[in-house]
Amino acid sequence: MVDLPITQPAPVPRRRRPALSWARYVGLATIGGLLILWSAASALGWASPLFLPSPARVWAALQRVAGQGYANATLAQHVAASLWRVGGALLAAMAVGVPAGLVIATSRIGRGILDPLIEFIRPLPPLAYLPLIIIWFGIGELSKVLVIAIAMLAPIVISTASGVRAASESQIQAARTFGATRWQVIREVMVPAALPSILTGIRIALGAGWTTLVAAELVAATRGLGYMIQSAAQFLVTDMVIAGILVISALATLSELGLRWVERRFLPWIGKA
Amino acid sequence: MASRAGSLALSHVSLHYGAGLAVLHDVSLTLARGEFISVIGRSGSGKTSLLNLAGGFVAPSSGQVSVDDRPVTGPGPDRAVVFQDDALYPWRSVRENVALPLKLRGMAPAARAERARAWLAEVGLQDHGDKPIWQLSGGQRQRVGLARALASEPEFLLMDEPLGALDAMTRDQMHELLLRLWQDSHAGALLITHSVEEAVFLSTSVIVLAPAPGHIVHREDFDFGRRFLCGEDPRALKSEPAFIAARERLLAAIHGKEPVHG
């Protein structure tokens, strides 16, 4: 007997929309096109190798720094130093920023105190407050982490505060009818409702963190990707500068992919309720 | 109006926002445990405000809301609410949603999971406890909301158009489930609804509100729900002349007209 179509299980809906995978192809094509253009530009001598070394030379520079090292350290050591700074700054910014965002969202007095402070910090360029941080905290590791953390703080505070508003009036009222205290409403309703927004804040903060890294490693660093790039730039080792840029870009992409994984794994309800 | 023991009472309650907009004017009603009161009325007649007052979400501008002669000062587990948008928490599984009131009361994890399981079985969702809530249909979600409200074993069950978004067949099933749960829980039920038929079928008493500002224009007692619980067929009850006449009477009251006699 032949199975009727009606007895077959419904096809599992495809998770990714076709439009998105098209966007992915277009993205890959753009990157490929740029690489070809870059190769052509250096092969045909459109630009001097001093300004634009060929992809092969950049690749060689990458291998050189990975193997023998450059500017007193191997690539792994540079990467580790930078990751430690950005990661430590992210943890510090979250430890301060998430509670601060909750206070802004749930207390009028808290909002009155913290809102102007955040709005003061938010537009400041890191290079502007870097000297002050060095005067206050010296040229050690603390200053570097602090500069990055300050740059990361505002996005996390603002996204937490606005994320709390994602909890609907009735979700909060429901918790209150169960006899929830103010603190329980925050813990059981507001924080979970804010998680998607907090994650978005972390993504923006990481972007700001990588941006600030090079500035933070301007002063008295002996390791780090920013330091490596600046050392190379001083001697016009352009291939190493580009290699450093590509490594930072790869790390930022990896952290973005990691956050997307966290989102899919732990917050599968985003956009579905 | 003197309130009885085991009752939620609104006495001479008025509600206005600021100086101007009056929402409710001099509304009195008493909901005893074991009663089922439905409130119907046109949009803007203050039905939801009435529920918000009973729930303790807003305080009356004058008059008093009380439970057993104690004034209501805020929401509490004695008055559970089923919301129009189910107000479930998508970051919790179905069972964890039902268990939340028990968790907030300090019940141990194993005990509350067991109780939540039992309540889900009551509403026919025993196989859905581990699912995330977005995998449920609208009717299933409202049943989770109902199970969650009942899990806190309230004295009063306040419902704000919980069935408004459901299709007709699901609504009929929900009516029968609602009546059974109401009977088993011995709670007093207050239902805000747009559906006159639903009000007549479910309630021991129906209140009609008229707008601008909301005030009570009609009250009437019914026993169709109780007769259903005694075993009568719901279709037969809903096609009885008495049921149809009651529906027409309430519709006339809603629209401020004398009933049409045919």
Automatic annotation (TrEMBL), chain B:
Residues 8-236 form the ABC transporter domain. Belongs to the ABC transporter superfamily. This is ATP-binding cassette domain-containing protein. CDD domains: ABC_NrtD_SsuB_transporters. InterPro entries: AAA+_ATPase (IPR003593), ABC_transporter-like_ATP-bd (IPR003439), ABC_transporter-like_CS (IPR017871), ABC_transporter_ATP-bind (IPR050166), P-loop_NTPase (IPR027417). It comes from Paracoccus limosus. GO terms for molecular function: ATP binding; ATP hydrolysis activity. It comes from the Bacteria. The lineage of its organism: Bacteria, Pseudomonadati, Pseudomonadota, Alphaproteobacteria, Rhodobacterales. Keywords: ATP-binding, Cell inner membrane, Cell membrane, Membrane, Nucleotide-binding, Translocase, Transport. It holds the Pfam family ABC_tran.
